[in-house]
Amino acid sequence: MTLATNLRTAALASMALLGTAAMAQQALVPAQSSIHFTAKQLGVPLNGHFKQFAAQIHFDTAKPEASKIHFTVDTGSATMGSKETDSNLMGADWFNIAKFPKATFDSSTVKALGGGKYQVDGTLTIKGNAQKVSVPVQLTQSGATTTAAGTLPLKRLPFKIGDGDWADTSMVADEVTVQFKLALTGVGKL
Asked: What is the DSSP letter of 126?
């Protein structure tokens, strides 16, 4: 083989590897994604959502146990549709965004359950308080987009959300339900 042939072969192999890496790039599509939450005040459901969040995802459909997920939520982007309520959410008793502007989730294990269902275990950290959680996720695909959807029931008090007078669960229930729909690109076929 000549030097030119060796260089051409090396260049083609490098392009093939780069192409594979580019295809494996996975990204969250925020415009097609949502995170909603429901809490109860005096027994009445109150709905809200987060406007800003991001994710670093490596989801391996062939080997889910090798998958890694790092998710961040800008707690200052929480809204319940009322200026007064939203202002309270930002304060020290609730999300304390001055000290804790982000909530995070880091996966530890991903387990396939069949039929596009997965169990994602990991650590959720809000206001500096870390709790182990198990997140049920349903994956569906349409074209190049994979949607991860699920519902996660949480208790707010272990995260110190609603401190002080708000820790009394007769006013605001301890239970909060988080619903998510995350649109992802670059995920392999299920």
From this structure: E
Distance of alpha carbon 110 from the chain centroid:
14
- Region of residue 167 (phi > 0: left; psi between -120 and 50: alpha; otherwise: beta): alpha
CA distance 54 to 102: 10
Concatenated DSSP letters of 88-116? HHHSTTTT-TTT--EEEEEEEEEEEEETT
pTM: 0.84
Residue 110, strand partner residues: 120
> Is the pLDDT at 1 greater than 80, yes or no?
no
Q: What share of the chain is helix, strand, coil (3-state, %, to 5)?
A: 25, 50, 25
> pLDDT tens for residues 24-75?
589 999 999 999 999 999 999 999 999 999 999 999 989 999 999 999 999 9
| Displacement of CA 107 from its chain's centroid (Å) | 10
CA dihedral 78, 177, 152, 142 (to 10 degrees): -70
